[in-house]
Every structure is written in C-alpha cells, then in structure tokens.
Amino acid sequence: GEKAKVKVEAGYFFGAPLPNATVNWTVKSADYYFILPEELASKLAGSWFSFAEEGVFCYWGCTGGSEIVSQGTAKTDANGVATVDLPLQIGDKKMSQIYTLEATVSDANNQSVANRVSFPVHRGSLYLGLRGQDYIVTTDQTAKFDVLSVGTDGKI
User: Would you give per-residue pLDDT tens digits along the chain (156 residues)?
Assistant: First the structure.
C-alpha cells in the first residue's frame, strides 16, 4: 500500500527550468535478485548466499520479461518539476521487483528528451539467504547449510 513520489525535473541545457512541459511516463516491473553487495563492511559480503530460487546464478543477472505496471502523463510546474505518484504494490509476485520509471519530456517545439531511474520494491523487510557448506554431497552424507537473514539494505 505504500507509494513512491518520483520527481521528474526538466530544464534547458543552459540551466533554466522547463515549465509547462509534457511528461509521458511508464513504469515497468521485473524480478529483483537480491545479493549481498561486496562493498558492505562484513566478512559475508560478496559471498555466495542464495536469496531466491534461482540462487547465485542470478548474481550476473537473470533474463526475464518485464511488464508495464503503470503509465501516464503529467505537466511540469513553473520550476520544471513534475511529480509521479507510484503505487508500490507487487501483488502476488513471488519475489521482490525492480521498478524502472522511464520519462520523456517534450517542450513547446515538440523536442523530446528521455531518462530513466530504477529502484527495488521489496516484498518484506528481510531477506533469508542459504549457502551450502559443501560443493558436493553424496547420499550417505548430511548436507550442511549456512542460513542468514539481512535487512533490505544488505546489513546483517
């Protein structure tokens, strides 16, 4: 039920704001594959914990489709700013999503420029990770795993 307010700022190359410009925007959603970033100050950061069914194979990015979540138009105000209100409801998706807002701004001469921004929409406040302690386990051995819970910021 939360919403994000995303500001789209439009201006001329020389710095003046672009007032009363048309903003066409689209929000797309795709599966978000959480990892522990290596830049965290933790001995576990960058290690091979799996936080999704696809596991560490999505470390380099999994392919998958995206779908349009929302789209619309807006006008910039006198300061060249338009605000887009986005509902952050991911419904029955089995995993967190990454939203990408693409906005195209057109001036009175119908010249356009576009940009995009992406951000994660988390299913919950924690991620549970799993890492096997052994590379191979035979049928007569006990499989051992490390389990880790981290916040959405990746901090343990």
Answer: 688 999 999 998 888 999 999 999 999 998 888 877 676 666 676 677 777 776 555 555 566 678 899 999 999 999 999 999 988 888 887 788 999 999 999 988 889 999 999 999 998 899 888 888 888 999 999 999 999 888 888 777
- Using CA atoms, how far residue 97 sits from 17, 27, 32, in Å, is 33, 12, 5
How far apart, in whole angstroms, are the C-alpha atoms of residue 118 and residue 121? Answer: 10
Neighbours of 49 (CB within 10 A): 23
Which candidate, 5, 3, 58, 70, places its Cα nearest to that of 32?
A: 58
DSSP strand pairing (112-121 vs 97-106): antiparallel
Rounded CA-CA distance 149/130 in Å is 9
Task: Tell me which residue has tokens 């051995």.
Answer: 141
Sign of the alpha-carbon dihedral angle for 119, 121, 125, 128:
negative
Structure tokens, 83: 């605000």
Q: How far apart are CA 135 and CA 131, in angstroms?
A: 10
- Alpha-carbon distance of 156 to 148, in angstroms, equals 8
